[in-house]
Amino acid sequence: MRIALDAMGSDARPVPDVEGAVMAARAYGLTVVLVGDENKLKSELAKHDTRGLDLPIVHAPSDIGMTEHVDAVKTKKDASMNIAMRLVREKQADAFVTAGNTGAAMAAAIAGPYLLGRIKGIKRPALTATIPTAVGRTLLLDIGANADVKPEYLYQFAMMGAAYAQKVMGVANPRVMLLSNGEEEGKGPLVVREAYALLKKSPLNFIGNAEGRDIPKGSADVIVTDGFTGNVAIKLSESLARTLVGFIRDEIKKRPLAVAGAALAKPAFDALRSRLDPAEYGGGILLGVDGVVIIGHGSSNAVAIKNAIRVAKEAVEGNVVELIRAGVA
To answer: Which of 114, 54, 56 is nearest to 84 (CA)?
Structure first.
């Protein structure tokens, strides 16, 4: 398997990008193609032990910054994001991974010079996030690709999310819910109520509306919403997790006896921090495009890059694109 990595994507590029690629190549035994400034990537690779690892470099003379407009995708055809996408389009790589500009990455996939395009029949792609819950994991989509949606978009998001949950997350019959402001069927804006009617008649395992509190409870395997609401929800949940861990640390420091107890409980605290750390979940897959596209946070560290590559690997192994294509048909 060959994964094309936009190695000039993250905020701290290319340091965490390269280190994460090295970690992934070693852990998963796959080829990670580093796309970016050749001199910078060679210099960074030299800091790591890469014996026995397959980490070829494909030169890209420019990159797209976090603050640049998505139009940069069309004006900078030689940017690392575009060149990495081209490798997937030309079947020289099985998946694309970036921690770069989210809007630009989505534009590169569906409208760039080397676009993959949408799967035939899919009206809009949806960006996903995997959220840790009290009982496992929940897939939330959309988290930013579509601020405005129609009922049929939400229906397709549910179909794609269920397919991903089944093949990649290993859920036999994924429970699907629609995010709203109440669990009753008639709750929510018109678009949500109409989507509810579509999902109620669908062959999916649709179990009704989810309220915000249902996300961390793990009431569903897939929760569907528009990109505006989903983006707010995911950023709130990630920030809240970090804040709660900080609260616990601060309160322990105020109490001498608690400090001693914390030393004994350190393994549990470490496990909690790992469970809540967004880096452990890597990146989100852009479902609906004709290829595997994974987009991570700009603040991704090496562990997050490694796990984003793992998510790409799992999506390729799960044959997610073909599964969605068959579902649409």
So the answer is: 114
The answer to whether 64 touches 100, Cβ cutoff 8 Å, is yes
Structure tokens at 118: 């949408």
* Residue 223 token pair: 């929760």
Distance CA(10)–CA(112), nearest Å, equals 20
Residue indicated by tokens 């549990």: 268
pLDDT in tens, 183-214: 998 899 999 999 999 999 999 999 999 999 99
Angle at which helices 227-253 and 266-276 pack, to 10 degrees? Answer: 160
- Please provide the DSSP assignment of 93-135 as one string: -SEEEE-S-HHHHHHHHHTSTT---BPTT-SS-EEEEEEEETT
User: Which domains are delineated in the chain?
Assistant: 1-122+288-322 (3.40.718.10), 126-279 (3.40.718.10)
**What 3-state DSSP class applies to 150?**
coil
List pLDDT tens digits, range 2-54: 999 999 999 999 999 999 999 999 999 999 999 999 999 999 999 999 999 99
∠ CA 297-301-306 to the nearest 5 degrees?
90
List, for residues 137-155, the tens digit of each pLDDT value.
999 999 988 999 999 999 9
Q: Measuring CA to CA, which residue among 296, 141, 148, 161 is closest to residue 230?
A: 141
User: What 8-state DSSP symbol labels residue 254?
Assistant: T
Omega within 30 of 0 (cis) for the link into 113: no
User: Beta-strand (E) ranges in the chain?
Assistant: 2-6, 31-36, 57-59, 95-98, 126-133, 136-141, 175-179, 205-210, 222-224, 283-287, 292-296
**Cis peptide bond prior to 142, omega within 30° of 0:** yes
Q: Are 283 and 310 in contact (CB under 8 A)?
A: no
β pairing state of 57-59 and 31-36: parallel
- Residue 26 three-state SS: helix
Residue corresponding to tokens 């229906």:
155
Q: Is 255 helix (H, G, I), strand (E, B) or coil?
A: coil
DSSP conformational letter for 53:
-
